[in-house]
Amino acid sequence: MTATHESATVSAMPSAAPQAAPGAAPPRRPLAARATAELVGTAALVAVVIGSGIQATELTKDVGVQLLANSLATVFGLGVLILLLGPVSGAHFNPVVTLAEWWTGRRGGTGVTIREVAAYVPAQIVGAVAGAILADAMFGRPLVEWSTHDRSAGHLLLGEVVATAGLILMIFGLARTDRLRYAPVAVASYIGAAYWFTSSTSFANPAVTIGRAFSDTFAGIAPGSLAGFIVMQLIGGVVGLALVALVFVPERGAAE
Questions:
Q1: Which of 7, 21, 92, 178 counts the highest number of beta carbons within 10 A?
Q2: What are the boundaries of each domain within the chain?
Q3: What is the pTM of this model?
């Protein structure tokens, strides 16, 4: 879910291989490896979300405790996944983040290219579906069981705009202020908080939304609610980028 790739670690051991010029950007890993990281990371994220939801409902009937367990597991799982896979792919795990990075870097910036978008987004969606199936399998449920949890109410759709806009504002705000090193903690903390302060419990991710339709559990979403949620998430992404442009304006020189 981070916006840019972290720098590669420089080995302290001597090497006969040619060294990059000082200040040069580290080489990126092959696109296949990065797309695989996005698939695996998104699959693991959805497995955490759905699996912890199933576990919570089996342990207690208190909805508040269920949500607490679900949100805590998501916070810890997401933070670890960003820390682990961020240096490989940027740990987007979210088509809105990928599209936002492409948009901001499309004019010679450091964001992903349209070719990378075409690899990342399908990998994220496939990973999300695989994660849902894996979670169902771990708890002995039908591998594919369409959710019946309707989430089409207007206030829930508004919650998705708010959740996604806040996520994009935070990620790209960190990038603008050179603080992406805090992304594992910041992104996970934001999502954990948004579970509670948004009416929709903060899906904020089209791929994860699609994956959650494949499981008729606490964390599921009915297929009929998918389109509304995804459209609102895309709108939230646009709102988030607009807020980034308004808030994080370039600093002016002393002479201006």
A1: 92
A2: 31-247
A3: 0.87
